[in-house]
Amino acid sequence: MDLILIIAIILLGPLLLASTLRLALRVGRHCSRKAYIWLLYHVVYPRILPGDMHLVNPSRAEILLLLLHWSITGFFNAYDIHSRTEFSRRAGQIAVLHMLPLLASQPLSLLADILGMSLHTLLYGHTVFGVMAALQGVLHAIFSPKVALTARSSKAMALTLLIALLLLAFLPVVKSRVYEIFLRTHVLFSIALAVTTWIHIGNEVILKRSLLVAYAMCIASGLWRTCYTVRSNIHFRTSRITSVSDVIDGKLATILELQLPRDLHFKPGQYVYITLVKRRSTCRTEDARQIPSKQLELCVVRMLQCVRWAVQRHPFVITWWQDSMHKSSTERMYVAIGQQHGWTREVTAASTELNSAYAWLDGPYGHNIRFEEYGAVLFFATGAGIFAVQPYLKGLTRLIQAGRAKIRRLTIVWVTDVLTEKVPEWMETLLHDSYIERDASLPLLRIAIHQLDKAGKSIEKCGARLIVHKNTQPNIDEYLQEQVNHGRTTAVAFSVHARLRFEIRDKILGGKSRIFRLFALSYQPHNADFDYRLDQSKHACKRSRVAVWAILYWQCCVINRFHGIYCKLCKQAGLGVLYPSCEEAEGIVANALLRDCATGP
Ligand SMILES: Cc1cc2nc3c(=O)[nH]c(=O)nc-3n(C[C@H](O)[C@H](O)[C@H](O)COP(=O)(O)OP(=O)(O)OC[C@H]3O[C@@H](n4cnc5c(N)ncnc54)[C@H](O)[C@@H]3O)c2cc1C
Questions:
Q1: DSSP one-letter string for 385-427
Q2: How far apart are CA 482 and CA 592, in angstroms?
Q3: Where does residue 487 fall: left (phi above 0), alpha (psi -120 to 50 degrees), or beta otherwise?
Q4: Mean pLDDT for the stretch of residues 467-480
């Protein structure tokens, strides 16, 4: 069979189904509302595994695409194959074909924007193609005919290729713990793979040409992106560079105010990749001036930190920007950095040194969800998730003011331990916008804050639109029922921890009403940084769960004792990324054990 045809079918098969699904959703939305809602509630929204404690839990739609992809690939693995050599060759071809989009689709954020899909969905596709490339590479190596001694170099190449493919496939497992190491090795192995593949495929003309196109696309998009970021970060005429103009320390997050060298236009839902470079003076030590050796040591540590920071880039939602009614672009934007275990922890600790540090921004990326087309919008946020919701509030209030939004009810439910100073200030600017209140009897904008660190339950009403529930969990059913009573199609968007994400999805899918449309915002907070306490009456302690936690706790304790020296070394070397994997795991598991026991059987 013609190789081009194989390329088209394998690569376009899942894409075709995805586009068909999207088209069906769009057409269905206008033609057959029943079919559209059926697709949403039975294919798009439901996850395949129950519960919230899963590392991976794809939706039915994603599994459908995966099955289609696997069956098409399996078919071509077997189609018109008569010998072992042919099988091995075909597997090799399919492996290279799967590598083409992986190599060409750089950077992923840019491609996600071009295709109009979320970064999350594109990363899923990237993983699926990567795994298949690795699998086909393995098949190619296993079934390859015995090579003559003279072709030893070719065999070595094949082996390198195989190892690189395997590492590429399995590295994501460590992604969640040591992201920086994952990223560097991922890029390094991708380059090694690209080179070895080129040498290994020999005379396969079509494959070579396709690879050339993929490499060219990768280099071109890389160059274009570099030029674009240089242009947006440096204003050559005025010699201005993006820099941190203010740092606001909060318990929830460290908020950076960034001064841009030129006006940029931002949309809600966008994010930027940030690299921070401290100015030279901030690398000097002030406190250890009397002891030269100590000063030298500290200076070296700080310089190493400067270098480490300079090679890292982290994505953050553009949570706020200063614009006026007359100008949609701005020179000032804000990002909120919630503390995790690596770079974010160091940034939080060194926040006082960040004033006037240089910032290198790559972006903005991400697409704006058109909430203004819905009759009602209900936002859920926990902890730092509010920073992903705020830009939408800002955008929607502007649209309501301009009379370009259908929204009649806008509800925000924020569950938090701490109130960061800047959020109430920003919210106040929205609440004070008198245009938002068109009809005094119907508060269009309503904000419910569930503050969990307060002793004693109470409800405080602050004006018509702001309610603070102290020490009370949000009742998801109640919030959904309110929307049902009003009968408008409601967009439910969330930036919440896994447990609440699961609860919202579960309640919506389990309910009778089909007025809800679900949207996950681009940033979802991590579980460990927020203690979203369970409603004790609903979540009874299961003995098996306690047993699993107990075993894990014991394992962590043992590992921790053996790795005590390793942890100390990591800490001393400033490798915060590696450090928590030893020590904090014990704490996290112990907390979970205590929590599960406390809830009682
Ligand atoms: C589109 C998007 C928008 C985000 N917006 C915000 C925001 O507004 N506020 C906020 O506090 N956090 C946001 N995050 C999360 C933030 O990027 C990570 O918490 C941060 O990069 C962790 O850095 P760390 O070195 O401290 O991480 P670690 O403690 O090493 O890891 C913590 C987690 O962050 C992930 N991570 C680490 N580095 C990166 C990276 N460079 N890119 C992607 N993921 C990474 C790891 O996989 C891990 O799951 C956003 C993430 C994405 C993908």
A1: GHHHHHHHHHHHHHHHHTT----SEEEEEEEESS--THHHHHH
A2: 33
A3: left
A4: 87
Query: Which of 316, 389, 577, when mutated, tests ligand 1's pocket best, judged by the most ligand atoms within 8 Å of its CB?
Result: 316
The full set of domain ranges for the chain reads: 3-221, 240-365, 371-529, 543-599
Per the structure block, which two tokens stand in for 512? 């009778």
Q: How far apart are CA 193 and CA 355, in angstroms?
A: 42
Here the tokens at position 99 are 């590598």
Looking only at the bridges linking them, the beta strands covering 445-451 and 466-470 are parallel
Smallest CA separation from ligand 1 atom 34, residue: 176
> Which helix H or strand E contains 510, and what residues bound it?
helix 498-510
Q: Which atom of ligand 1 is nearest to the CA of 183?
A: 41
Token pair for 213: 């196109």
The architecture that CATH gives domain 371-529 is 3-Layer(aba) Sandwich (3.40)
Rounded to the nearest whole angstrom, what is the distance from the C-alpha of residue 381 to the centroid of ligand 1?
Answer: 17
* End-to-end CA, the chain: 62
Tens-place pLDDT, residues 246-272: 888 877 888 899 998 888 888 899 999
CA-CA distance, 350 to 337, in Å (whole number)?
Answer: 12
Q: CA 222 → CA 111, 219, 229, 312, distances in Å? A: 12, 5, 11, 17
Ligand 1 binding pocket, CB closer than 6 Å = 119, 175-176, 179, 253, 271, 314-317, 319, 336-338, 340-345, 384, 387-388, 522-523, 526, 577
Pick the atom of ligand 1 nearest to 119's CA.
1
Assign 561 a pLDDT band (cuts: 50, 70, 90). Answer: low
Question: Strands (DSSP E) along 122-238, which ranges?
Answer: 234-235
Q: Closest Cα partner for 356 from 266, 241, 252, 445? A: 241
Closest by alpha carbon to 358, among 309, 398, 304? Answer: 309
Question: From the alpha carbon of 109, which atom of ligand 1 is closest?
Answer: 1
Give the closest residue (by CA) to ligand 1 atom 36. 179
Q: SS3 for 144? A: coil
> Taking Cα atoms as reference points, which of 334, 275, 268 lies closest to residue 308?
275
Q: What is the DSSP letter of 454?
A: S
User: Distance between CA atoms of 62 and 18, rounded to whole angstroms?
Assistant: 9
* The CATH homologous superfamily of the domain defined by 240-365: Translation factors (2.40.30.10)
In CATH terms, are 240-365 and 371-529 the same topology?
A: no
pLDDT of 583 reads 47
| pLDDT tens track for 202-250 | 777 888 888 888 889 888 988 988 898 998 898 888 888 898 988 888 7
Tokens 């309501």 -> residue: 400
Which numbered atom of ligand 1 lies nearest the CA of 366?
Answer: 1
CA-wise closest residue to 466 among 438, 443, 489 = 443
